Hints:
Blueprint: H1 7-37, H2 42-64, H3 67-77, H4 84-99, H5 106-117, H6 121-124, E1 125-128, E2 134-135, E3 139-146, E4 151-157, H7 161-182, H8 188-202, H9 205-219, E5 225-226, E6 230-233, E7 237-241, E8 247-248, H10 249-255, H11 258-279, E9 281-283, E10 291-293, E11 308-310, E12 316-318, H12 326-336, H13 340-350, H14 361-376, E13 380-381, H15 384-395, H16 415-431, E14 434-435, H17 437-444
Parallel strand pairs: 5-11
Antiparallel strand pairs: 1-3, 2-3, 3-4, 4-7, 6-7, 8-10, 9-12, 10-11, 13-14
Amino acid sequence: MGTMADLPRKAVARTARLAALPLGFAGRTAVGMGRRIGGSPAETVVSDVQRRTAEQLFRTLGDLKGGAMKLGQALSILESALPEDVAAPYRQQLTRLQDSAPPMSAPTVHHVLATELGTSWRKSLVEFDDDPAAAASIGQVHKGRWSDGRVVAVKVQYPGAGDALRADLRQIGRLARTFGALVPGIDIKPLVAELQDRVAEELDYELEAEAQQGFADAFRDDPDFLVPEVVAHTDKVLVSEWVDSPASLARLIADGTREERNHYGELYVRFLFEGPARAGMLHADPHPGNFRMLAARDGEPTGSLGGLGIVDYGAVARLPEHSLPRTIGSLVRIAMYDDYEDVLEGLRTEGFVKPNITIDPGELRDYLSPFIEPARAETFAFSRAWMREQFQRLQDPRQPGSTLALRLNLPPSYLLIHRVWVGSIGVLCQLEAELPFRAMLENALPGFAEA
């Protein structure tokens, strides 16, 4: 990595690469058409274009380390929605993006630690591994040992990450405004403002430390979940207890057994649903790299599966009522009873349908009913095929309700909740987990059991 003085130049280059992605794809498509005219098989041309586009896209997103890196992680969660022939060249790049990014050099990391913890930082961090153990969207994690003997994870924010992230968001914001002009149902300006506010919170490691400790207090001594305690923090360095884990949920997506997928998939959903009621907050970064498989506790039978360790509390929804909105559970339950006139009224009240937008309840049923399916049966088998079917259904203009998404709004207060809901369903489909989803909703989703 370069020096701090290189940051303005790198920010310009980063923005240029982000803006150039569509042009790169168009160029490769044109080359592909030329080859096709020249006699190459169409399938070969398409495969080659997809492979090279995937490589450039995720290499660029990985280098950005800002808003686009977060966008890439979101895309990696939703890869289960892509058709299999399209997803194949992307999957390896996507999975790699969930757990990695280009690292900072050791001198740069030492400079940040000296600036944040003081020039005598090695008196506190008596051991420190210069090679990063993991990377996040705006920082990287190193393993070390604190002066009291505890093994710790040291998260160090990339120098200039704040400026880079805000620049990426401005670029994405300009694209979003263009998108908003084409989609009359979405009030895009407050949504972008909410996104920028929440991202600003992610840059503040002091806020993250407060959220992480809140979860640690709420889940302390839980047999199924481990939230690492905060050891020390500044606004750009966060030191917390090390989570000893062989792998994240991303490994299960690649090669987990059926039993592992179901077990850890259920723990994953339970933590996301139980967090609001127990901690008053929603963990709002559902990508698999944040959820670590734990070994079975001492004394458990041989072959037993362990609990789940949860890391990275930069994206957290601080809920006004210290719980998820009861309206969500109520509307899901009402939709199960097929009363879409009441569902539509509830969506209008919550701001999902703007006053000037007309929607027919039958059209709403066509749009939503397949998404209610996991809550109908005793158990539901999530799968890539089911997710792809839903996305393809909504992209086909011949299908009933396919254009409704253009007329539905996303209220800013639901931004992170929506991110978790869609992202977690995507992860469950990647895991292909079979879960008692309805009972889980009844236990943890306010308003669902009572509606």
